[in-house]
Amino acid sequence: MPLFINRDQIFAHQVHLLEHKLRSKEERLLELETENAILHLRLAECLGKLHLGHEEKTKALAHHQHHRNAEKITQSALTKLLSEVQALKQDLSEVFAVYVSFANELEEQSKQLLKKVDQASLTLRDHNGDEVHDLQARVEALEHSLEEEKERCRAERQRRKELHNTLVELRGNIRVHCRVRPVLPIDNIQFSGPGPAPSEEVVYAISDDTVVVNCLKTGMPVQNKIFEFERVHGPEDSQDDVFEDIKPLLTSLLDGYNVCIMAYGQTGSGKTHTMIGSQPLGEHSGTKQEAQQGIIPKAAAELFRLISEKPAESHTVEVSVMEVYNNEVFDLLARDEQGNAVSQQRDVITTSSGTSQVTSLTSEPVFSASEVMQIVSRVLKLRAHCNTLVHTDSSRSHLIVTLTISSKSPNALALARRLQNAKKDMQRSTQREFWSPRCHRANPAARNSPDKLFGSPSNSPCLSPSPSPCPSPGRTTSPTPFRTKLQLVDLAGSECVGISGVSGAALWEVSCINRSLSALSDVLGALAEQRPHVPYRNSKVTHLLQDAIGGDAKLLVMLCVSPTQRFITESLQSLGFGTRARQVQKVLPRRKNNTLKDK
Ligand code: ADP
Ligand code: MG
C-alpha cells in the first residue's frame, strides 16, 4: 500500500461524490417539479369548475333574452308571411278561374273544328272517291295499252329483223355482225399529255344493232358517229351469245348453201378470241373452257350435231387448213415425204368453171368436232405469230379453216337449190349479155355444153369430185355426193406501225397484211358499187375467198372492235369497212354486159 494518498485521487473521489449528490438532488428536484405541476393542474381544475358555473348562469340569461327577442321577430315575420300567402292564394284562384274559362273555350272550339273537319272529309270522300277510281281505271288502261304497245313493238322488231334477214338473203347481202370487246389491261398505258386519255372508252354497243363512237378532240364538242349492223355485241356478251346469232347459218350448210364466216378487225381487237377462243384448244373439255370456245369449235360441234340428226353415214366431213402469209398461200395440213407436218406453199388458180381453187390442198376426213379441233390446234402451232406492242401474240397471217360436207342424200331444199343453180347457169349461158362479169368467162366450154351448165361453181352446192361437170337436173338422184363448204376465216389484223412498234422483217409482214386488207376493202367497194371490174386477184386472200365474197355463198363478216380512244382510228376504219360490206348485193347481176372482164 502506498504511504501517502494521491491528492488527485482524493479530489477525484470527492468530485465523484459531489456529482452523485448533485444527481440525486436533481432527481429530487425533478420529482418536486412534477408534483408541483400536478398540483397546479388540480388547482386549475378546481378554479375552472368554479368559473364555469358562473359563466353558464350569465349565458342562460342572455339566451333567454335573445330567445324572447327572436320570438318577437319571428312572430312579426310570420304575420307578414301569412298576409303575403293569403294575397298569393287570392291571385292563384283568380288565375285558375281564367285558365278554366280558357280551357272550356278551347275545348268548345276544338270540338267545333273537329266537327267541321269530319264534315269536310266526308264531303271530300264522296266527291273524290269517283275521281280517284276513275284515275286508277285510266292508269290501269294506260298500263295495259302500254304493255300491248310494248308487245306489238317487240313483235314488230322481231318481224323487222326477220324481214331484214329475208331481204339480206334475197339480195345476197353480206351480213355484218360487230363485237366490241371489253376494256383490257392492254388498253391501260401510261399517259400524261393533253387531250383524251388513250384508255378512255369511246366505242359503245348501245343496242343489239347499233354502235356509237364518241369522237373526242381537245377543245371540240364530242361528236357521235353511229353505225348499224345486223347484230351488235357488247363487251358483256359471251362467246355463246355471239355464236347463237351465227347458228342459223350452219343449218343453211345442209340446205345446200356455202357459208363463210370471216373475222375482221385491228390487231388485238378480239378476232382470234372470237373465231377460235382464248384457251388452248383440245386440251381440256370442261364447261368453262367450252364457254370460252370461239366460233370454229362451236360451229364444228353444231355441224356434227346437225349431221347426227340425219340418216347415219349420209354425210361426210373433210377439213383443210390454210394460211395466207406475206401474200402466199400455205397448206397447213401438208406432210413431207417422211410424213412430218410441214407448211407447204400452194397456188390459187381459177378453175374452168370460173371459181378459185387451191391446188393440191390437203384435206383430212373428220368424224367429230373434237377431231376438227385437234387438227386445228395442231396446225395452229405452224401459224405465223409475233409479239407487238399492242398484242403479245399477234397472228401475222390470214387463217382459213374449211369444212367440206359431202351429202349422199341431200334434202329437198338442197336439191332445189342445186336445180335452181343449174337453171341459173343455163339462163346465164343463153343470155350472155346479162351475165354477171364474174361468172363463167373462164369457162367457155361450160357455155357451149348444156350438160356442163350444171357444173356448179364452188360457191354453189357442187358435186364431187369438184369441179368436174355436175350431172344434169335429170340425174339428181345420182349417188354422187353433194358438197357444200363452210369457210371460217381469222384474218390477220390491220395495224398502224407506229402503235404496234414493229420493225425490220416484221415491217414487210405488216405491209403485206395491210395491203391484203385494203385489197379486200377494194373488192367490197367494187361489188357495192357494182363496178364491172372486181379486183379479186390483187391479193391472194381475195382471190382465194373470191367465191365467198362475190358468189352466192352466205358470207358473214364478224367485225371486231377495240373500245378505247387509243385505237379509235382503226375502229372507225373497221366500222367503215363493215358498213361498206353491208352494201354489197352479191346475187343480182351487177351489169348486163358479157364483154366485161373479171381480172
Ligand atoms: P386479234 O386476234 O384481233 O389480234 P385476240 O383475239 O388475240 O386479238 O385478242 C387480244 C386479247 O384480248 C387476247 O388476250 C384475248 O383473250 C382478249 N380478248 C379479245 N376479245 C375479248 C373478249 N370479248 N372478252 C375477253 N377478252 C377478250
Ligand atoms: Mg389474232
Number of domains: 3
Shape summary: elongated
**Cofactors and ligands present?**
adenosine-5'-diphosphate, magnesium ion
CATH topology (fold) name of the largest domain: Kinesin
Instruction: Name the assembly state.
Output: single chain
Protein name: Kinesin motor domain-containing protein
Binding site for ATP: 265-272
InterPro entries: Kinesin-like_fam (IPR027640), Kinesin_motor_dom (IPR001752), Kinesin_motor_dom_sf (IPR036961), P-loop_NTPase (IPR027417)
Pfam families: Kinesin
Structural commentary:
The chain has 14 helices and 18 strands. With 599 residues, the chain is an alpha+beta fold. The longest helix is centred in the N-terminal third of the chain and has 165 residues, at 7-171.
Show the helix and strand layout.
Layout (H helix, E strand, L loop, with lengths): L6 H165 L3 E6 L22 E5 L2 E6 L7 E6 L2 E3 L5 H6 L2 H8 L4 E7 L5 H5 L11 H6 L2 H14 L6 E11 L2 E4 L12 E3 L1 E3 L5 E3 L5 E3 L2 H12 L4 E2 L7 E2 L2 E10 L4 H19 L13 H5 L13 E2 L18 E9 L6 H4 L4 H24 L11 H5 L1 H5 L3 E8 L6 H15 L17
Helix pairs in contact: 3-6, 6-7, 11-14
The chain binds adenosine-5'-diphosphate (ADP) and magnesium ion.
Short description:
The protein contains 14 helices and 18 strands.
Give me some keywords for this one.
single chain; 599 residues; alpha+beta; Kinesin; 3 domains; 11-stranded mixed sheet; 14 helices; disordered C terminus; binds magnesium ion
